[in-house]
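Reminder: ligand-aware prediction takes two inputs, not one.
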Amino acid sequence: MFVSTRRTFLKAASAGLAAPFAFSQAPKIEAAPLGDNLYLLSGAGANIIARTGGDGVVMVDGGLAQRAAALAQAVAALPNAGTVKTLFNTHWHPEQIGSNESLGMAGAAIIAQENTRLWLQQDVTWPWNGQKFKKLSKIAQPNKTFYDNGALDSGIRYGYISDAAHTDGDLYVYFPQQNVLAVGDAAYGQGWPVVDWWTGGWIGGIVGGLQRIQSVVTKDGNPNTKIVPAVGPVLSPADITAQVEMYGTIYDRLNQMLNKGHSPSEGVAAKPAKEYEAKMGNPDEFIRRSFESLWAYLSPDA
Ligand SMILES: [Zn+2]
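Here is what comes back for the chain with zinc ion:
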Protein backbone atom coordinates (compact mmCIF):
# COMPACT_ATOMS: atom_id res chain seq x y z
CA MET A 1 0.00 0.00 0.00
CA PHE A 2 2.75 2.38 1.03
CA VAL A 3 4.85 1.44 -1.99
CA SER A 4 2.10 2.06 -4.48
CA THR A 5 1.26 5.35 -2.78
CA ARG A 6 4.88 6.34 -2.98
CA ARG A 7 5.03 5.30 -6.62
CA THR A 8 1.93 7.38 -7.30
CA PHE A 9 3.62 10.28 -5.55
CA LEU A 10 6.79 9.89 -7.63
CA LYS A 11 4.73 9.75 -10.81
CA ALA A 12 2.92 12.90 -9.79
CA ALA A 13 6.22 14.56 -8.92
CA SER A 14 7.81 13.72 -12.26
CA ALA A 15 4.65 14.83 -14.06
CA GLY A 16 4.95 18.05 -12.10
CA LEU A 17 8.53 18.49 -13.28
CA ALA A 18 7.49 17.93 -16.86
CA ALA A 19 4.57 20.30 -16.61
CA PRO A 20 6.45 23.60 -17.17
CA PHE A 21 7.72 22.27 -20.49
CA ALA A 22 4.29 21.01 -21.49
CA PHE A 23 2.62 24.30 -20.61
CA SER A 24 5.21 26.38 -22.43
CA GLN A 25 4.15 24.73 -25.69
CA ALA A 26 1.24 26.15 -27.65
CA PRO A 27 -1.82 23.90 -28.04
CA LYS A 28 -1.69 21.32 -30.77
CA ILE A 29 -3.45 22.19 -34.02
CA GLU A 30 -6.49 19.92 -34.28
CA ALA A 31 -8.28 19.07 -37.53
CA ALA A 32 -11.95 18.01 -37.81
CA PRO A 33 -13.75 17.11 -41.06
CA LEU A 34 -16.46 19.49 -42.35
CA GLY A 35 -17.23 17.60 -45.56
CA ASP A 36 -15.46 15.98 -48.52
CA ASN A 37 -11.85 17.24 -48.52
CA LEU A 38 -12.84 20.08 -46.21
CA TYR A 39 -11.39 20.51 -42.70
CA LEU A 40 -11.74 22.83 -39.74
CA LEU A 41 -8.42 23.45 -37.97
CA SER A 42 -8.33 24.90 -34.47
CA GLY A 43 -5.50 25.93 -32.16
CA ALA A 44 -3.93 28.56 -34.46
CA GLY A 45 -5.68 31.55 -32.86
CA ALA A 46 -8.82 31.35 -35.00
CA ASN A 47 -10.82 28.71 -36.83
CA ILE A 48 -9.10 27.89 -40.12
CA ILE A 49 -10.73 26.07 -43.05
CA ALA A 50 -8.65 24.03 -45.48
CA ARG A 51 -9.97 22.45 -48.68
CA THR A 52 -7.64 19.76 -49.96
CA GLY A 53 -7.75 17.77 -53.19
CA GLY A 54 -8.37 19.50 -56.51
CA ASP A 55 -5.81 21.93 -57.86
CA GLY A 56 -4.03 22.94 -54.65
CA VAL A 57 -5.17 23.65 -51.12
CA VAL A 58 -7.57 26.54 -50.44
CA MET A 59 -7.43 28.05 -46.94
CA VAL A 60 -9.74 30.49 -45.21
CA ASP A 61 -7.65 32.55 -42.76
CA GLY A 62 -4.12 31.81 -41.60
CA GLY A 63 -4.10 32.07 -37.79
CA LEU A 64 -1.59 34.02 -35.72
CA ALA A 65 1.94 34.48 -37.10
CA GLN A 66 3.49 32.57 -34.18
CA ARG A 67 1.29 29.56 -35.08
CA ALA A 68 1.86 29.71 -38.85
CA ALA A 69 4.56 27.01 -38.95
CA ALA A 70 2.49 24.60 -36.83
CA LEU A 71 -0.58 25.33 -38.94
CA ALA A 72 1.32 24.72 -42.19
CA GLN A 73 2.45 21.33 -40.81
CA ALA A 74 -1.09 20.42 -39.80
CA VAL A 75 -2.46 21.41 -43.22
CA ALA A 76 0.28 19.43 -44.99
CA ALA A 77 -0.69 16.37 -42.93
CA LEU A 78 -4.36 16.44 -44.07
CA PRO A 79 -5.56 13.74 -46.51
CA ASN A 80 -5.07 14.79 -50.19
CA ALA A 81 -3.09 17.86 -49.13
CA GLY A 82 -0.74 19.58 -51.55
CA THR A 83 0.61 23.06 -52.13
CA VAL A 84 -1.48 25.87 -50.69
CA LYS A 85 -2.50 27.86 -53.78
CA THR A 86 -5.14 30.17 -52.31
CA LEU A 87 -5.54 31.90 -48.95
CA PHE A 88 -8.53 34.06 -48.01
CA ASN A 89 -8.23 36.77 -45.35
CA THR A 90 -11.75 37.22 -43.94
CA HIS A 91 -10.52 40.58 -42.51
CA TRP A 92 -7.29 42.28 -41.43
CA HIS A 93 -6.97 41.11 -37.77
CA PRO A 94 -3.80 39.24 -36.66
CA GLU A 95 -5.69 35.94 -36.10
CA GLN A 96 -6.48 35.93 -39.83
CA ILE A 97 -3.25 37.06 -41.49
CA GLY A 98 -0.43 35.14 -39.70
CA SER A 99 0.28 32.86 -42.68
CA ASN A 100 0.31 35.66 -45.26
CA GLU A 101 4.07 36.12 -45.29
CA SER A 102 5.01 32.46 -45.70
CA LEU A 103 2.26 31.73 -48.23
CA GLY A 104 2.86 35.00 -50.09
CA MET A 105 6.55 34.11 -50.44
CA ALA A 106 5.54 30.66 -51.67
CA GLY A 107 3.49 32.27 -54.44
CA ALA A 108 -0.04 31.69 -53.16
CA ALA A 109 -2.91 33.94 -54.19
CA ILE A 110 -4.00 35.92 -51.11
CA ILE A 111 -7.60 37.03 -51.61
CA ALA A 112 -9.18 39.81 -49.55
CA GLN A 113 -11.67 42.60 -49.91
CA GLU A 114 -9.83 45.76 -50.98
CA ASN A 115 -10.42 47.52 -47.62
CA THR A 116 -8.60 44.69 -45.84
CA ARG A 117 -5.54 45.28 -48.03
CA LEU A 118 -5.70 49.01 -47.26
CA TRP A 119 -5.63 48.32 -43.48
CA LEU A 120 -2.77 45.85 -43.88
CA GLN A 121 -0.57 48.39 -45.65
CA GLN A 122 -0.63 50.83 -42.74
CA ASP A 123 0.06 50.73 -39.00
CA VAL A 124 -3.11 50.63 -36.89
CA THR A 125 -3.56 51.60 -33.20
CA TRP A 126 -6.82 50.88 -31.39
CA PRO A 127 -7.75 54.01 -29.41
CA TRP A 128 -9.61 52.13 -26.63
CA ASN A 129 -6.66 50.06 -25.42
CA GLY A 130 -3.60 51.35 -27.28
CA GLN A 131 -2.99 48.01 -29.02
CA LYS A 132 -0.72 48.47 -32.03
CA PHE A 133 -0.66 46.48 -35.26
CA LYS A 134 2.25 46.72 -37.69
CA LYS A 135 1.62 46.96 -41.41
CA LEU A 136 2.53 43.89 -43.43
CA SER A 137 5.46 43.63 -45.80
CA LYS A 138 4.52 43.87 -49.48
CA ILE A 139 4.88 40.12 -50.07
CA ALA A 140 2.49 39.40 -47.16
CA GLN A 141 -0.25 41.75 -48.31
CA PRO A 142 -3.30 40.42 -50.13
CA ASN A 143 -2.37 40.21 -53.82
CA LYS A 144 -5.80 39.51 -55.29
CA THR A 145 -8.39 41.93 -53.95
CA PHE A 146 -12.01 42.46 -54.96
CA TYR A 147 -14.85 44.86 -54.20
CA ASP A 148 -18.10 42.87 -54.39
CA ASN A 149 -17.72 39.16 -55.05
CA GLY A 150 -15.91 36.50 -57.02
CA ALA A 151 -15.49 32.78 -57.62
CA LEU A 152 -12.67 30.27 -57.97
CA ASP A 153 -12.52 27.78 -60.86
CA SER A 154 -13.45 25.04 -58.38
CA GLY A 155 -16.86 26.68 -57.82
CA ILE A 156 -15.99 28.20 -54.44
CA ARG A 157 -17.75 31.58 -54.18
CA TYR A 158 -16.87 34.58 -52.04
CA GLY A 159 -18.33 37.99 -51.38
CA TYR A 160 -18.11 41.22 -49.46
CA ILE A 161 -20.11 41.58 -46.24
CA SER A 162 -20.52 45.29 -46.87
CA ASP A 163 -22.46 46.08 -43.69
CA ALA A 164 -19.26 46.58 -41.62
CA ALA A 165 -20.20 43.90 -39.12
CA HIS A 166 -16.70 43.61 -37.66
CA THR A 167 -14.46 45.71 -39.95
CA ASP A 168 -15.13 47.47 -43.25
CA GLY A 169 -13.46 44.61 -45.15
CA ASP A 170 -15.31 41.47 -44.01
CA LEU A 171 -15.81 38.65 -46.51
CA TYR A 172 -17.55 35.28 -46.64
CA VAL A 173 -16.47 32.15 -48.53
CA TYR A 174 -19.03 29.54 -49.60
CA PHE A 175 -18.07 25.94 -50.44
CA PRO A 176 -21.10 24.69 -52.42
CA GLN A 177 -19.99 21.06 -52.64
CA GLN A 178 -19.82 20.73 -48.86
CA ASN A 179 -22.50 23.37 -48.11
CA VAL A 180 -20.14 25.22 -45.74
CA LEU A 181 -20.13 29.01 -45.34
CA ALA A 182 -17.10 30.66 -43.69
CA VAL A 183 -17.91 34.09 -42.23
CA GLY A 184 -14.83 35.17 -40.25
CA ASP A 185 -15.80 37.42 -37.34
CA ALA A 186 -19.03 38.67 -38.97
CA ALA A 187 -20.65 36.07 -36.68
CA TYR A 188 -19.23 34.75 -33.43
CA GLY A 189 -19.69 31.13 -32.34
CA GLN A 190 -19.09 32.00 -28.71
CA GLY A 191 -18.82 35.10 -26.55
CA TRP A 192 -19.43 38.75 -27.34
CA PRO A 193 -17.80 40.05 -30.53
CA VAL A 194 -15.01 42.60 -30.71
CA VAL A 195 -16.57 45.78 -32.11
CA ASP A 196 -13.65 47.24 -34.05
CA TRP A 197 -15.16 50.63 -34.85
CA TRP A 198 -11.71 52.06 -35.57
CA THR A 199 -11.64 50.09 -38.83
CA GLY A 200 -15.32 50.40 -39.59
CA GLY A 201 -17.26 47.84 -37.54
CA TRP A 202 -20.41 48.90 -35.68
CA ILE A 203 -23.38 47.43 -33.84
CA GLY A 204 -25.78 48.18 -36.70
CA GLY A 205 -23.33 46.39 -39.00
CA ILE A 206 -23.37 43.31 -36.77
CA VAL A 207 -27.13 43.07 -37.34
CA GLY A 208 -26.79 43.86 -41.06
CA GLY A 209 -23.94 41.37 -41.51
CA LEU A 210 -25.93 38.59 -39.85
CA GLN A 211 -28.88 39.37 -42.14
CA ARG A 212 -26.55 39.25 -45.13
CA ILE A 213 -25.34 35.82 -43.97
CA GLN A 214 -29.02 34.79 -43.83
CA SER A 215 -29.54 35.96 -47.41
CA VAL A 216 -26.44 34.07 -48.62
CA VAL A 217 -27.87 30.93 -46.97
CA THR A 218 -31.27 31.58 -48.58
CA LYS A 219 -29.70 32.02 -52.02
CA ASP A 220 -26.93 29.42 -51.97
CA GLY A 221 -27.45 27.21 -48.95
CA ASN A 222 -30.29 25.58 -47.02
CA PRO A 223 -31.25 24.92 -43.37
CA ASN A 224 -28.35 22.44 -43.12
CA THR A 225 -25.64 24.89 -44.18
CA LYS A 226 -22.73 24.81 -41.75
CA ILE A 227 -21.70 28.35 -40.88
CA VAL A 228 -18.12 28.53 -39.64
CA PRO A 229 -17.18 31.60 -37.58
CA ALA A 230 -13.57 32.52 -36.80
CA VAL A 231 -14.28 32.04 -33.07
CA GLY A 232 -16.19 29.19 -31.41
CA PRO A 233 -18.20 26.22 -32.66
CA VAL A 234 -19.91 25.79 -36.03
CA LEU A 235 -23.29 27.58 -36.28
CA SER A 236 -26.57 26.67 -38.01
CA PRO A 237 -28.86 29.09 -39.87
CA ALA A 238 -31.18 28.88 -36.82
CA ASP A 239 -28.31 30.10 -34.62
CA ILE A 240 -27.85 33.08 -36.95
CA THR A 241 -31.59 33.86 -36.72
CA ALA A 242 -31.32 33.90 -32.92
CA GLN A 243 -28.30 36.21 -33.14
CA VAL A 244 -30.16 38.62 -35.44
CA GLU A 245 -32.87 38.90 -32.79
CA MET A 246 -30.44 39.36 -29.91
CA TYR A 247 -28.18 41.95 -31.56
CA GLY A 248 -31.20 43.69 -33.08
CA THR A 249 -32.71 44.09 -29.59
CA ILE A 250 -29.46 45.44 -28.15
CA TYR A 251 -28.99 47.78 -31.13
CA ASP A 252 -32.48 49.24 -30.62
CA ARG A 253 -31.88 49.81 -26.91
CA LEU A 254 -28.52 51.52 -27.50
CA ASN A 255 -30.04 53.69 -30.22
CA GLN A 256 -32.77 54.84 -27.83
CA MET A 257 -30.20 55.70 -25.16
CA LEU A 258 -28.08 57.56 -27.69
CA ASN A 259 -31.11 59.58 -28.79
CA LYS A 260 -31.71 60.54 -25.15
CA GLY A 261 -28.17 61.86 -24.95
CA HIS A 262 -26.73 59.11 -22.74
CA SER A 263 -22.98 58.36 -22.61
CA PRO A 264 -21.32 54.97 -23.21
CA SER A 265 -20.89 54.52 -19.41
CA GLU A 266 -24.60 55.16 -18.88
CA GLY A 267 -25.26 52.70 -21.70
CA VAL A 268 -23.23 50.01 -19.90
CA ALA A 269 -24.90 50.79 -16.54
CA ALA A 270 -28.39 50.40 -18.06
CA LYS A 271 -27.58 46.70 -18.77
CA PRO A 272 -29.13 46.57 -22.25
CA ALA A 273 -28.05 42.91 -22.67
CA LYS A 274 -29.21 41.66 -19.27
CA GLU A 275 -31.35 38.73 -20.48
CA TYR A 276 -28.43 37.40 -22.55
CA GLU A 277 -25.71 37.63 -19.89
CA ALA A 278 -26.25 34.15 -18.42
CA LYS A 279 -25.58 32.54 -21.81
CA MET A 280 -23.10 35.05 -23.26
CA GLY A 281 -21.05 36.29 -20.29
CA ASN A 282 -20.28 39.82 -19.10
CA PRO A 283 -21.26 42.23 -21.90
CA ASP A 284 -19.76 45.47 -20.52
CA GLU A 285 -16.83 45.73 -22.93
CA PHE A 286 -19.07 44.81 -25.86
CA ILE A 287 -21.73 47.36 -24.88
CA ARG A 288 -19.17 50.14 -24.41
CA ARG A 289 -17.57 49.49 -27.82
CA SER A 290 -21.01 49.19 -29.43
CA PHE A 291 -22.09 52.53 -27.98
CA GLU A 292 -18.86 54.15 -29.17
CA SER A 293 -19.43 52.55 -32.57
CA LEU A 294 -22.74 54.41 -32.88
CA TRP A 295 -20.89 57.67 -32.31
CA ALA A 296 -18.21 56.70 -34.82
CA TYR A 297 -20.77 55.59 -37.40
CA LEU A 298 -23.26 58.43 -37.01
CA SER A 299 -20.73 61.23 -36.60
CA PRO A 300 -20.82 63.50 -39.68
CA ASP A 301 -16.98 63.49 -39.79
CA ALA A 302 -16.79 59.70 -40.10
ZN1 LIG B 1 -11.48 39.94 -35.95
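Confidence is low (pLDDT under 50) at residues 1-23. DSSP finds ten helices and 14 strands in the chain. We will return to this case in the review session.
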